[in-house]
Amino acid sequence: MAAADELTFHEFEEATNLLAETPDAATTSRSDQPISQGHVAVAVGSGDSYGAEDEVEEESDKAALLQKQQQQQQPGFWTFSYYQSFFDVDTSQVLDRIKGSLLPRPGHNFVRHYLRNRPDLYGPFWICATLAFVLAITGNLTLVLAQRRDPSIHYSPQFHKVTVAGISIYCYAWLVPLALWGFLRWRKGVRERVGPYTFLETVCVYGYSLFVFIPMVVLWLIPVPWLQWLFGALALGLSAAGLVFTLWPVVREDTRLVAAVLLATVVLLHALLAMGCKLYFFQSLPPEHVTPPHQAASLPTNIPLSPTLPRSMAPS
Q1: Where are the membrane-spanning stretches (predicted)?
Q2: pTM over 0.70
């Protein structure tokens, strides 16, 4: 304590001597130094805050500009570039989704395990196109093989089957998912716990479910009726099972009656598609293409036939 008082006395004495030598000099007390340092600190701090605010404003401006550019670059649904993103899929992803549709398993949701919020239209489009052409070609080949076994069958190329197959397959692959999606959306308004898939996810599920019908149609070239129906039942079971396993997590939150009727309708429509393809494109003996056997005109045996002579031997 005494040392501190002595130090303060010496400082006061030095200040007195300095003031005596220079009477016009301004004096600053020790208490003024923290105030000045405080002012400096405040000035520096305020400068940093201004810089941080400028950076935040700059980042927000960049984000707003980027969002505006994305909105300007996003095409409308009526343009081709809008649908181009749905065809941006790798071959490995398409093969993996085809494998998942061929091997359905209970509790293995096709949408969650294979689509993963990235539905595509590339696979469903080419699956439907391939199925339509295979149906038309194998339907014509069936008549060709039948003509070789039975020459009485008259075959002519049936190009209209390509149109019929294309319209039937594409309408089924688009209209049925549209109706199903609309019904589930309506049920979501009735029961809040029902959460349907998106329309593109529903189309994607139906498109990949039709792949199993392609090898089935090729195997239908075997001219054994019971074997054809067996192949059709196996393909229908695999395809319908994939649809039921995928739709069950959505419809199980609804009432049991609605869930049962909806799943039964899905399976029934699938069965009608398979049976329609079998009965229309693989008719074993179409009546309009069968020529009746040649029947010789029968004459009475008691009427003698008049002999005819060559013109050169006839009497003049």
Answers
A1: 121-144, 164-184, 205-223, 229-250, 257-281
A2: no
| Model confidence pLDDT, tens digit, residues 190-235 | 665 556 788 999 999 999 999 999 999 999 998 888 999 999 999 9
Q: Cβ atoms within 10 A of the Cβ of 208, count?
A: 26
According to DSSP, the residues that pair with 153 across neighbouring strands are: 290
**Those residues with Cβ within 8 angstroms of residue 98's Cβ, 6 or more apart along the chain or in another chain:** 123, 208, 211
Contact 242, 103 (CB under 8 A): no
Quick one: CA torsion of 167, 169, 170, 173, rounded to 10 degrees? 150
Say how many CA atoms lie within 13 Å of 46 toward its Cβ: 6
> Two tokens at 103?
């091997």
Neighbours of 265 (CB within 10 A): 14
Please tell me the distance from the alpha carbon of residue 67 to that of residue 174, in angstroms, as a whole number. 33
Would you list the DSSP string of 9-49?
Answer: HHHHHHHHHHHHH-TTPPP--TTHHHHHHHHHHHHHHHHHH
Q: How many Cβ atoms sit within 10 Å of the Cβ of residue 178?
A: 13
Residue 237: both structure tokens together = 């079971």
248 and 105 in contact (C-beta within 8 Å)?
no
Residue pair 246/160 in contact by the 8 Å Cβ criterion: no
Instruction: Name the H helices within the chain.
Output: 2-21, 32-73, 80-84, 91-102, 110, 122-149, 160-190, 199-209, 213-219, 225-251, 256-281
Question: Rg for the chain (alpha carbons), in Å?
Answer: 44
**CA atoms within a 13 Å half-sphere pointing along the CA-CB vector of 105:** 8
Taking only the tens place, the pLDDT of each residue in 252-293 is: 888 889 899 999 999 999 999 999 999 998 875 544 444 444
Torsions phi, psi of 193, nearest 5?
-80, -10
Compute the residue count for the chain.
316
